[in-house]
Specification:
It is a single chain. By secondary structure, the chain is of the alpha/beta class. Helix content is 36%, strand content 32%. The protein has 11 helices and 18 strands. The strands form 3 sheets. Strands 1, 4, 12, 14, 15, 17 and 18 form a 7-stranded mixed β-sheet that branches. The chain has a 6-stranded mixed β-sheet with strand order 8-7-6-9-10-11, sandwiched between helices. It has a 5-stranded antiparallel β-sheet with strand order 2-3-5-16-13, with helices on one face. The two termini are 41 Å apart. The relative contact order is 0.17.
């Protein structure tokens, strides 16, 4: 076990593969009154020294070959899958699962030593039938588990252009499967192709397993998305990441904004399956802070991070704390605002607004959905003007039936990207 410790720090604390970045929305609170404060707990992966030191990949490509995938869709899917295989090293492991109303393991999990044979089997894929999406995902995970190791990247990449209509098919059932696989160390990345797929189902499956979700607007974008996903997979520097936050006396944890977490008394815990090189993932924790006197300081929380180093395969720990001061000066409180934390808070507010607007629109409340999106513009325009522009456009498209299907998918993908800090553009 490698451990690096920091005391009373609101700056980065570095370990071999991860740094812990702690900050409060304000470092100075108004004296004499209770305050509600946002704490940002960020984890950043170190820069990877070289490509040769990347972890081994164990990837299942799960491809929808149902009838709706006929023509250019299945051809581009085959092209993208072949491209992905060509990016793999000889010691990586790949499997290919195809599904319509039945599931077939086209390439059982194997080391990538005979690319010609794998590519030949991919080229033979033909479309036809219905969509057994749940069973396809489950079978892909079974192939990954054949060679599962903690020191490698274990991932299912699922492509579909339609609705799950064979076997379990609700978003809740797929979310449950994703949570199960994520708990076993297998991430599921979902690629929704075109305007016919179920974005609720695909987004929940990915998010529950700690995978990525993409809305791929056309089959011509598939190679681009596969390339992005594989570049991300090769840059995993830490896995089995667990964070424990212990709030100080006088600090009450209220809620975690953007991730499933457990709050028990003064302790808060959450986890990630993986952290990428040069990329930050974070959680925002709202706390209630008791009143203090002018000039006093208060340690808000102690944070402990443990993870598996994907290079050395050793467990590492890094810890730190964050504190605030009290002041009777309104100017001092205002000047202490941490713009980065408040920007992240505004973005998470937008993600929640998008999800609520979708719920309202689905219930027939178009005016309410527009109001929700326009209201979020004020929350974010100071920090993210481009995001504010997207919200205005989405609010207009809420009432346009001809645009709603596409806009809904974009909103789901954008909200998921913010909540999970997904790398790259989630809409292609």
């Amino acid at each position: 076990m490698v451990e690096k410790k920091s005391v009373n720090s609101s700056v980065d604390t570095a370990a071999t593969q991860c740094s812990l970045n702690l900050a409060a929305g304000h470092s100075v609170l108004a004296a004499g009154e209770k305050s509600t404060l946002c704490l940002k707990i960020g984890v950043t992966g170190s820069e990877m020294e070289s490509e040769t030191k990347r972890p081994r990949l164990n990837v299942a490509l799960v491809i929808d070959r149902s009838g709706s995938m006929c023509g250019s869709k299945i051809e581009q899917a085959k092209h993208a899958a072949s491209y992905a295989v060509n990016q793999l090293r000889g010691d990586d492991i790949v499997s290919v699962v195809i599904y319509d109303d039945e599931v077939e393991v086209l390439v059982p999990a194997t080391k990538v030593t005979d690319k010609r044979d794998i590519l030949s089997k991919i080229a033979s894929i033909e479309s036809g039938g219905c969509t057994a999406l749940y069973a396809g995902t489950e079978k892909g995970a079974e192939e990954v588990k054949k060679f599962f190791e903690k020191g490698q990247v274990n991932r299912v990449i699922l492509l579909s252009d339609g609705l799950a209509n064979v076997g379990p098919s609700s978003p809740e059932e797929l979310e449950k499967l994703g949570r199960k696989l994520g708990g076993e160390g297998v991430c599921v990345t979902t690629l929704g192709l075109g305007e016919g797929y179920d974005e609720d189902l695909m987004q929940k499956l990915a998010q529950a397993s700690d995978g990525n979700h993409f809305f791929v607007t056309s089959e011509e974008k598939l190679v681009e998305v596969f390339d992005e996903e594989f570049k991300t997979a090769t840059k995993v520097v830490a896995s089995e990441v667990v964070c424990e936050v212990t709030c100080a006396k006088g600090v009450r944890p209220i809620r975690v904004l953007n991730r499933d977490a457990k709050i028990r008394g003064q302790k808060v815990s959450f986890s990630w399956n993986q952290i990428y090189s040069g990329h930050q993932r974070y959680v925002l924790l709202e706390v209630e802070v008791s009143a203090g006197k002018d000039g006093e300081k208060l340690s808000l929380a102690e944070v402990k991070l443990t993870y598996a180093n994907m290079v050395t395969h050793r467990a590492e720990t890094v810890s730190g704390s964050v504190e605030v001061a009290y002041s009777a000066s309104e100017e001092a409180v205002k000047a202490s605002e941490n713009e980065e934390v408040m920007k992240d808070y505004a973005e998470q507010t937008v993600a929640k607004a998008r999800e609520e607007a979708i719920r309202m629109r689905d219930a027939g409340n178009i005016v309410g959905a527009q109001y929700m999106l326009y209201g979020a513009v004020d929350d974010v325009k100071m920090y993210c003007p481009a995001m504010a522009e997207d919200l205005v456009e989405e609010a207009k498209e809420v009432k346009d039936d001809s645009k709603w299907n596409t806009s809904r998918k974009k909103m789901r993908a954008r909200a998921n990207k913010i909540r999970t800090q997904q790398k790259g553009d989630s809409v292609r």
